[in-house]
Amino acid sequence: MSPRIAVAATAPFGADVFERLAARHEISCLLTRPDAPAGRGRKLAPPPAKEAAARLGVPVLQPDQLEPGLDLGAATVVVVAFGLIVPEELLHPFLWLNVHPSLLPRWRGAAPVERAIMFGETETGVTIIKLVTELDAGPIAAQQAFAIEPEDDAGSVYAKAASIAVDSLDAVLADPDPAFRPQSEEGLTYADKITPVDRVLDPARPAAELVDLVRALSPHIGARAEVHGRSVTVWRARVGGDASFEPLEVQPEGGRRMSYEAWLRGLRR
Predict the structure, then answer these.
(1) Chain segment 179-233, per-residue pLDDT in tens
(2) What gap in Å lies between CA 33 and CA 39, rounded to an integer?
(3) For 199, which DSSP code?
(4) How far is CA 101 from CA 28, 136, 163, 168, 254, in A?
(5) Long-range contacts made by residues 35-40, C-beta under 8 angstroms, separation at least 24?
(6) pLDDT tens for residues 118-127?
(7) What number of other Cβ atoms are within 10 A of residue 139's Cβ?
(8) C-alpha–C-alpha distance, residues 224 and 48, integer Å
């Protein structure tokens, strides 16, 4: 029988892994970040992982800071898309297993899936590491690669990663003394956080690169473009028969998502 675990998660990917883990393991609590302003009204909203915990009836801890003496009700903590640095003094009372959606040491950092797709890569993976103070640099307990298909966007890649992550964690958690191997420094890259500049579709770039950017930022962030003099978010696109960039689904400012053709018809009225 696998041990009781705690989960530290905040973002949607973390919420997905948390829910999948809850179907297979006893979870003592969810450690997540405090509620934060969201949306146009900037009202306080719970993080996605907290919403999942509420549905499952799992206790939630939302400390403003992580401090010594934290009681998580378990000796092992699975960390996934948590968004807070775990201080060194808290690393030793627990075994922290970090889920990272890349083939470490490639794409350490905040946006590994997005950066992999933006760079046109056809393979990524999931790595389970022991948490250390250096960002995503801990020794590896498990690693599994999978393909990024041409039709995949960030949403579908994150879903594949969540499924693989839980299978990998099952094996690691079942081992009372899991083995860890050091990460190589060869092939080390960093996946910086997505900025507003990263979202801009530059018409001077090749169409295939623009399509990769759209895929990388869908369905959660969105690529931005000026089309027929209007600012739109592009959610789906393809390379046309003449090698041009063709938007397929767009969202005008203040509007809803719609097909590019429907948006063009609205402009002609």
Answers:
(1) 999 999 899 999 999 999 999 999 999 999 999 999 999 999 999 999 989 999 9
(2) 17
(3) G
(4) 24, 11, 11, 12, 33
(5) 35/62
(6) 999 999 999 9
(7) 12
(8) 25
| Predicted TM-score of the model (pTM) | 0.95
Rounded CA separation 159/107 (Å): 18
Query: SS3 for 56?
Result: helix
For residues 124 and 102, is the Cβ–Cβ distance under 8 A?
A: yes
- Which residue, 20, 175, 164, 29, is CA-closest to 100? 164
Rounded distance between C-alpha atoms, residue 55 and residue 28, angstroms: 15
Helices (H) and strands (E) in the chain, counts: 7, 15
Give the whole-angstrom CA distance, residue 15 versus residue 3: 20
pLDDT of residue 38: 80
Compute the distance between CA of residue 26 and CA of residue 3 in angstroms, rounded to an integer. 8
Output 251-259 pairs: Cβ under 8 A, ≥24 positions apart.
Answer: 251/222
Q: Which residue has the tokens 């009700």?
A: 73
Q: How many residues does the chain have?
A: 269
- Can you tell me the distance from the alpha carbon of 127 to that of 143, in angstroms, rounded to the nearest whole number? 4
Output the furthest CA–CA distance in the chain (Å, rounded).
68
